[in-house]
Amino acid sequence: MLDIDTRDLLESAENALTAPRHLTPAQEDVWHNHTLRNRIPMIQEALRIAREEGDAERAMQLIDQAVHDYPAPTRVPGNRPVPGSRLLSQRHRTDHDDPEPPTAD
Questions:
Q1: If we measure between CA atoms, which residue out of 29, 50, 31, 73 comes closest to residue 12?
Q2: Model pTM?
Q3: DSSP assignment of 56-105, as one string?
Q4: Rounded distance between C-alpha atoms, residue 35 and residue 43, angstroms
């Protein structure tokens, strides 16, 4: 059976390597391509420190630092909503366009 410090370290590492459930598919792609890719080396170093140096506290601090430095995305780059004023002006033009002139038959 593992001691509490080891269990906490492993749980922290597992949480840092797991995508949050609330992410959209696009955000999850960003998470895998950016967040996870950058966290892995720091977490590997933390596990090495825990294994070779027996310093679980320092390893936990490094995992926490990885999560802090590379947080889960809250917004997907390039996926910006249309500003309200622009949307309204598009609606205004559509609603107020002059109808086509009547044709002479």
A1: 50
A2: 0.63
A3: HHHHHHHHHHHHHHSPPPSS-TT-PPPPHHHHHHHHHHHHHPPPPPPPP-
A4: 12
Per-residue CA distances from 97 to 85, 102, 103 (Å): 18, 15, 17
Average pLDDT across the chain, whole number = 78
Cβ atoms of residues 19 and 31 within 8 Å: yes
Is pLDDT at 13 greater than 70 in this prediction?
A: yes
- Between CA 47 and CA 68 the distance in angstroms is 17
pLDDT tens track for 65-104:
999 999 887 755 555 444 444 434 444 444 444 455 555 6
Tokens (6 digits) for 9: 């370290």
